[in-house]
Queue: 2 jobs
Job 1
Amino acid sequence: MIRMVARRLLALVPLVFLVTLLVWGLVLVIPGDQALAIAGDSATPEQVEAIREDLGLDDPVPVRYGRWLAAAVQGDLGTSLYTSYSVTDALADRLPVTLSLVFVSFALAVVVGTAIGMLAANQKGRLTDRLLTVTTSVGLAVPNFWLGLLLVTFFALKLEWFPSGGYVPFTEDPAGWLRSITLPAVTLATAVAAELARQMRASMSDVLERDFIRTHRAKGLRPATIVRRYALKNAAMPVITVAGLQIARLFGLATIVEIIFNLNGVGALAVDAVFDRDIPVIQGCVLLITVIVLLVNLVVDVSYGLVNPKVRAQ
Amino acid sequence: MTGAGTDALLEVEGLAVEFATAQGWARVVDDVSFTIGHGETLGLLGESGCGKSVTSLAVMGLLPPRSSRIAAGSIRLAGRELRGLSESQLSDVRGNLVSMIFQEPMTSLDPAFRVGEQISSVLRRHRGTSRSGARERAVELLDLVGIPDAAQRVDDYPHTFSGGMRQRVMIAIALACEPDLLIADEPTTALDVTVQKQILELLADLQDRLGMGVLFVTHDMGVISQISDRVVVMYAGQVVEQASTEEVFWHPQHPYTEGLLACLPAEHGRERLRGIPGLVPGPLDLPGGCRFHPRCHHARAGLCDVTPPGLDEVHSGHRARCLLARDLELRGIS
């Protein structure tokens, strides 16, 4: 098990290297002159040239990449072209917001999706199942910016149960943190919960038809035990794979939710950076999210091994 | 209300099982009766689709709840009526007083759990055994069913066992609570011939030691002859013949049984294998009169296709559902 994790971590190195190439390559692909962007419209050609010199933009491409990579490995992702803040500091500031949002959403989606999927599979073909199937279809179809606005209108403005936006750090006020993260997390979790519910329903109803379920019944085990302990572990295997992919999706969708709820997360930062052509910040955001997604996939693969003894043995 | 003076372990009487179809309820088991004594082995014999597996699932209370129903009859275990018990009452009986092993050892064990856990869960359910006590007992049981290195193997997962070894694990699970009755539904059909023999010997040996009754369901005449004391032959959902194993093999009283016996390869014979022409009719297109008459070469027009035969005693302890039973000279094995 430990060897498998070590091997997988090692395999990440070339992958991350490739990602840095692509991320850094942005500079070459994106139209416009960085030096010109910084200098502004009123700058003289000499000023622009000075900035270009300063940033080393005239050096050959491999040298520029090498310089950037060497710094990045040491945790220095450069400086924002506009705010002159360090990109690393900006990301460290914003990351807790995005991580809170994504992981609370993911936990919510897993719990709710699994419960709905199990219930539907157990009631397959009956009214409960059909109602839940309709519910999950709606959950998949609703655009999350619309759902977010709806939740804000009802639960924040009308009932005033939750704030309509803004983020309270967990370390400052855990209860406030939970209140600030609830509506965004529900917004973000809905589509993923619906997807997981469908996967779980399919997987669980398949498992419940298998011969070994009949064996468990022949042993006299109680139906609830059979479903919750035995069938669930078997049914979880394909769902875990899907759930892992959903985490990557959550990081993408989080961007929209961060903007709706005025959360200063990595996604909101990336969007601002794109509008400003603030290339070091874009690079930093993309690199960070990519590395997180890769690590999450590793965790997913490891937990897959935990439920599937055949994978563990290899 | 138990039958006066009976000390039978299992009494099945007039059992009828129906399955839901697009055309309504189809009766797949009709008026089936038999008894099993303590320590006795009853062979339930018939082709695929004759209702033998459905009968055994009915005894276990494992019929699919919404698509099937027990339409008539009673199932008594040591005098206690099982028909009509709630699912929770039945689950107290299953794995405890009555156990079952199945045809497909490759798929009947849970792939996600260690075999030891699968055995000890029965003990914890019915006996309230502690986790460590159940584990110890699981090792003993694996040893009892002849799995080498039981103390190590108890922590292995099913995919590391061969088919024969998995069937041994199934037997260990079934015997964990020392049931009074073991139902074996084609337990050797999916196994190699050599492994088949070992499993049969193991079952016979364990039965001697534990003294349980066995309902052995199979389509294999050879297996039946080795293991059972008495035989019930089923055809198209009905019992067509019932007698001691010797009687059935030497002096069959039903043309269907004769046909099955003729399918056995003779020991030194050069004769071609024979089969019974035609197929078992489905429950929705049963022929009138005797259900076997379209495939029977003794059938008499105007009689067998008109009058449904009853399951009558031909001579003491030997019943057959055939209008011509007393007239025909049928060939047993010779």
Note: The first helix of chain A runs from residue 2 to 29.
Job 2
Amino acid sequence: MTRFTLTSGKVIVKPFNKIWIVLFVILIIVVVLGQYIYFPEYLTLAEIWPFLKKMFSPRNDIFGHRTWGDYFNYIFTIIPYYLLKTIKMSIGGTVIGSAIALPFSVLAAKNVFKNKWITSPFRFIMNIIRTIPAAVMVIVAVFIVGTGNLAGIIGFSLFSFGIMAKMLYEVIETSDMNSFEALESTGANKTQAFRYALLPQIFPIFISYLIYVFEINIRASALLAFVGVESIGSIIQVGLDGGDFDYIGGVVIVLTFVIIIIQLFSNWIRGKLQ
Amino acid sequence: MTNVQQTYLKIPKRWKINLIFSIAMLVALIYSFAGSEINILRLSSVFYSFKYMILAYTKINWDLVLGMGIYPFSDGVVYMALETLAMAFFGTLLGGILAIPLGFLSSETVGGKTGSRIGSAVLVLIRVFPEIILAVVLLKGFGINSMTCVMAIGIHSVGMLGKLFAEAIDNMDKLPLEALDAVGANRWQKIRFGILPQIAADFSSVTLYRLDINVRSASVLGIVAAGGFGAMLSYASAPENQSVLAALMVVIVPMILIMDAISGYLRGKLI
């Protein structure tokens, strides 16, 4: 930024020219994408379309010959088995994690506990837990309890706890505290005041967050197969290794439907609660 | 009856809904544990594993973390963290740039009724498609390297960013647009001088928020494609490689904490 001092003593600051930001962004893009000008053999965009075709039609080569009947049979019999495992893990993780998050979020809310020494440690713990991605959390759980559904549930509980606690204490901090103070002035303790003044306020938001966290868990669970827990991602993993791309396509169709159904359900419930 | 009693009798009876909700949650919980093979043998080994895990964190291989000694720097965890940050940054940049036209299209102010419908449909489709499958598809186009992750993150970000951009455009003050109409500005001039100055701060704040999310997904997306912590994470997922996971955690947690702090600070400055 350049400064001009006029003869009258007035200082004028020339505003920062935003064109430099744009040029910087363009430079980054050119540098990153420019590698493909020199090494065009790394860019095989033309292979994406045949791959998509293979994904959404039955396999037909020397290693496997399937009909559309086999394809739909697979979608309706094998995939639901893995989908059920995924949903079980997500439900268990979401419910346990959110149930634990509810009391902890109150302990971290600054307007319920005015003392900084109570809220800060809880916030710190939550922030640490929140940073760890779901897949990493499941790796830790696999180490502690071994592979299987239980590891998924524990990993997802910790992961859901992190998201839920953070979102909930922000909701509690923005909620109306008048009724809480009124109850406290009549001699109710903090638990009773929370039960009758704050919980009715945050409950609808809690439910809609519950569904949101559930959806995140469903999405994240596709990755679990790659860290050793059987889930819907197992089909993707096996399909990639064995060239059964049509099975991956089946997973895409099923997962897309499930997520759409969850979102419609979440919209419906949000409409009901308000 | 006194006034207080009357009011007390009028309180809404929610116990039925609460009961149904609690029972549903309980049933779901019990069902989710079915088939998870909990037995005494497994539970008895939990404490042993826990002890071993804590032990792994007490003696972290700092040579591996920093890429010194026998490990080249490009194998160190810190280098992977830098790669992850670069992937997330470039992915977000790409997503942000792609989201601008789609956001404008799907806002009613610019795109009109039909445009907004088409735009929103495209955005919903992008949002619904799971990131990991996007990475699997793009693997064929970009090969096993970090560019696949960048593209997957970029395309996936467009869904949320476009929606939030469109909301920002629809919620802004429309009077400058009328003023620009009155002086005879065309559509592009209206976008440049009427809309962009108003929503630039909103756009940046939303994009920074997305950067937070993308750093998280970039650190695990490498398991499917490559780049970042991916290869190391799938190696560490074997129980005997707990020490490697400890080395990864020591870098991942501070990295995301610092990124959160930076983006939170910048967002606070913007608004």
Note: Chain B touches chain A through 58 residues (CB under 8 Å).
